[in-house]
Design a protein that fits this description.
Elements lengths: L4 H25 L5 H11 L1 H21 L5 E11 L2 H11 L14 E15 L3 H68 L4 H35 L24 H11 L1 H21 L5 E12 L10 E9 L7 H68 L4 H35 L9 H4 L11
Helix pairs in contact: 2-5, 3-5, 5-6, 5-8, 5-10, 7-9, 8-9, 9-10
Length: about 475
């Protein structure tokens, strides 16, 4: 009895220790989500990108399939034959090496033959179609990889923009909460004055209306934050209801974009859309050469090692072999080669037109990114001045209101103007950050890899979201 008692006491302690360890690791794993982490999760889990990865794998398999045409085809075969056809009787009994010269071929009887062997076919020349098929598939792979990279960059842009929407929503919430506190305090003071007979009921009602407006703005800002968070986690492939904490992060703290001409040159050199469009042009040109190769001869080597018997008594001394070199030269194909060539040339012209359009679109993307950045900078400067003037105006009006020389309506107008200026300043600030993202992606500044966008700039802080 005494020997078993310590075991019963240790078991609950063991469970408590295990639970404590698990709780420690669970809490340690719940670290705030930073912006680089969000981008990394998006590139790993986003369904659209996963589908694009499978498309790239398919394109790679097409390249391998095209290369397989250079290799010989080798296979085993077996055949069981029973017939009374004179030609089959003659050739098969000869291959069996059991031919009877006195056979009556008008009535040879029933033939039974079991044949098995090894066959080999190897293309020696087919008008260059094998080389063209490899080039065609490689161009297709390059175009597919370019589309995948373009999707990666688009997703990175969406994640960063949604991240800044979250940060701006938090700023709007702070402004709205401060407005609610300010108006609430004034409403409490006005209520006391109204009960004491020193304030009008219209002033009290004006404060209540203003408080309702402030609460409505707070509600809209909170809802905007929830919508942005839902959009972020949907991009991460985790679903809009995923609970998590977000860290404060900004990858563009001290980064400034290159001059416009330099950024444009960089974009024209590195943008994946241009590389993809050029790959499509190359693929279309290969298609033209492939269509023309329909007039070229085809040379093929074939070999066979086999044995025949009327049963299963196959022996090595009765084995047969053959090696053949065959050439086919098409003389007339009903103008199908010419039709295929015209079709391929039309596709080549279409691909070249698309390449030119892509160049124009890249130029427009870069131009728009720089123009929006310049606009955001100027808007932010104007908004900063408006905030400063709004703060000063509210301070003066507040003094006048407390001294009795300004009405409550004038005070509420000044408070509303100040808050509206602060909201415009916050919106312009984060629009400026979004414009920086657009420039970095439009100019292919981060073209060394999707994650290198953050390697170019200071690492974001990890202050947890309120």
């Amino acid at each position: 009895m005494h020997m078993n008692q310590p075991k019963r006491n240790r078991l609950p302690r063991y469970r408590i220790l295990t639970a404590a360890v698990l709780l420690f690791y669970a809490s340690a794993g719940a670290s705030p989500l930073t912006l680089p982490m969000a981008v990394e999760e998006t590139l790993k889990n986003n369904p659209d990108l996963l589908s694009a990865e499978e498309t790239v794998s398919l394109a790679r398999s097409q390249v391998e399939k095209a290369k397989a045409a250079y290799w010989p085809k080798v296979g085993l075969y077996a055949e069981a034959l029973r017939a009374d056809a004179p030609s089959a009787f003659l050739f098969k009994t000869i291959d069996q090496r059991l031919f009877d010269p006195g056979t009556d071929f008008n009535d040879p009887g029933i033939l039974t033959n079991i044949e098995g062997g090894l066959e080999m076919q190897m293309p020696l020349y087919n008008g260059g179609r094998n080389q063209l098929a490899v080039a065609f598939s490689r161009s297709g792979l390059s175009a597919t990889e370019a589309r995948r990279t373009s999707l990666q960059r688009h997703l990175i842009s969406e994640v960063i923009n949604v991240w800044y929407d979250i940060l701006s929503s938090r700023k709007f919430i702070d402004i709205a909460e401060e407005s609610v506190r300010t108006v609430t305090a004034q409403l409490e003071a006005m209520t006391i004055r109204y009960k004491g007979g020193s304030a009008l009921k219209s002033d009290l009602l004006s404060l209540k209306v203003r408080l309702a407006e402030a609460e409505e703005r707070l509600l809209a800002s909170n809802n905007r934050l929830k919508l942005s968070r839902a959009a972020l986690f949907t991009l991460l492939g985790q679903g809009p209801d995923t609970p998590d904490s977000l860290a404060v992060g900004d990858p563009f703290n001290d980064w400034s974009p290159p001059p416009y001409t330099e950024g444009l040159a960089h974009a024209l050199e590195r943008r994946c859309e241009i590389k993809g469009a050029q790959a499509m042009v190359d693929q279309a040109g290969t298609g033209v050469r492939t269509a023309k190769s329909g007039h070229h001869p085809v040379v093929q080597l074939a070999g066979r090692l086999y044995a025949d018997d009327d049963g299963f008594d196959h022996t090595a001394d009765r084995a047969n072999w053959s090696v053949a070199l065959r050439m086919d030269l098409p003389l007339f194909s009903g103008f199908s080669v010419e039709a295929d060539t015209r079709t391929a040339r039309a596709r080549e012209r279409s691909a070249e037109t698309l390449r030119k359009k892509t160049l124009l679109q890249v130029r427009l993307d870069v131009k728009n990114a720089y123009l929006r950045y310049d606009e955001a900078i100027k808007r932010h400067q104007v908004a900063e001045n408006a905030v400063a003037m709004g703060e000063e105006s509210l301070s003066l009006v507040k003094q006048q209101f407390e001294g009795g020389s300004a009405t409550i309506t004038r005070y509420l107008e000044a408070e509303l103007d100040r808050n509206s200026a602060r909201i415009r300043e916050a919106a312009a600030f984060y629009d400026m950050k979004k414009a920086l993202t657009a420039i970095a992606l439009a100019t292919a500044t981060s073209d060394n890899g999707p994650g290198s966008l953050f390697a170019l700039h200071p690492a974001p802080s990890t202050e947890q979201e309120k």
